[in-house]
């Protein structure tokens, strides 16, 4: 799934998207298309809201599989991080409008991951970038 997302978005945005991964041996029972959509939304956002390389990391822990999407772009304030998964929420309307989204992507991503019993966490600093991490139970 991840390699296919990288292939399409690196061409669409003409961007370097680097994948770091250990050997992952776990199989997860999941809706493949929905998981594709959730990861696609995070990588697409990373491309829209930053200008440099994107780093993807897949890791296997004792109880969960994590997929992190890291960008070095605009970042998000603590206040915005609290609302980012709300439907139709967009940061700074003027800034976001040039990329023409609806504010639904992250809400959809969040509900897909929740439906799989997982969570999404954010680490972000304004003007330094953001890391969105999907945690899926094994
Ligand atoms: P769409 O519904 O078409 O995806 P969108 O990108 O505006 O539109 P969301 O994906 O829900 O919608 O994102 C909500 C807002 O969160 C965005 O408008 C943007 O301001 C902010 N945002 C999302 N991802 C990032 C990111 N990686 N870096 C900085 N800001 C982000």
UniProtKB/TrEMBL annotation:
* Record localization: Cell membrane
Which intervals hold domain Histidine kinase?
1-138
Q: Where is the signal peptide?
A: none
Q: What is this protein called?
A: Signal transduction histidine-protein kinase ArlS
